[in-house]
Amino acid sequence: MALPEQTSLLLSLLRNAKIQDQFNDSDWELLIRQCKSSLLMGSVGNRLIYQIPKADFSDRVKAHFQAALTFWERQKVEVDWQVKGLAKIFLRQDQPLVLLKGAAYMISGMGHSVGRSFNDIDCLVAHAELDHVADALNWKGWFTVNLTNYDKFYYRKWMHELPPMRNLKNGTTLDIHHAILPLTAKYHPNTSLLFERLRKTQIDNVYTLCPEDMVIHSATHLFHEGEFDHGLRDLVDIKELLRYFSENESGFWDRLVPRAIELDLIRPLYYGLHYAQQILAAEIPDTVMQDAAAGAPNFVMKKVMDGLFLRALRPDHPSCDLPGTGFARWLLYIRSHYLRMPLYLLIPHLVRKSWKRRFDKSDAETAAV
Question: Is the pTM above the cut of 0.85?
Answer without folding.
Answer: yes
